[in-house]
């Protein structure tokens, strides 16, 4: 599961059949500890994780996304992660996204 942001799409095929992390505008983090920035995965630094488990969040966890358009950052906090992705391209419109790939996964969005 990935939490993050993308720019608005023009065509459904732009998101490679719901694999949002492959989209060139994707900025986010997967539950397995990969950070995706512009379609490039990297491993989160140990300072962004508060566990050595395989997963950064699980059932019942609240994940908070904080988009700061002035600072051009996205902070993802919750479960066992607190990480800020810097250097988002300025002047963009961003859409929060959740990319789920397990069949029985559900997400509740809170204001």
- Give the total of beta strands: 8
- How big a fraction of the residues is strand? 25-35%
The helical percent reads under 10%
Instruction: Tell me the strand order in the biggest sheet.
Output: 4-3-2-1-8
Q: Which structural class do you get from the secondary structure elements?
A: mainly beta
State the order of secondary-structure elements, H for helix, E for strand: EEEEEEEE
The 3D shape can be described as globular
Average pLDDT value?
A: 83
Low-confidence spans: pLDDT under 50, at least 5 residues? none
Helix count from the secondary structure assignment: 0
Written overview of the protein:
With 111 residues, the chain is mainly beta. It contains no helices and eight strands. A five-stranded antiparallel beta sheet has the order 4-3-2-1-8, with no helix packed on it. A hairpin with a 2-residue loop joins β6 and β7. It starts with a strand and ends in a 12-residue tail after the last strand.
């Amino acid at each position: 599961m990935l939490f993050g942001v993308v720019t608005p799409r023009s065509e459904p095929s732009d998101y490679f059949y719901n694999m949002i992390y492959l989209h060139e505008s994707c900025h986010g983090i997967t539950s397995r500890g990969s950070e995706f920035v512009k379609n490039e995965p990297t491993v989160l630094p140990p300072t962004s994780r508060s566990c050595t488990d395989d997963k950064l969040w699980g059932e019942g966890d609240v994940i908070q996304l904080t988009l700061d358009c002035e600072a051009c950052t996205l902070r993802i906090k919750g479960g066992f992660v607190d990480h800020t992705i810097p250097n988002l391209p300025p002047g963009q419109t961003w859409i929060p996204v959740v990319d789920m790939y397990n069949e029985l996964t559900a997400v509740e969005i809170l204001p």
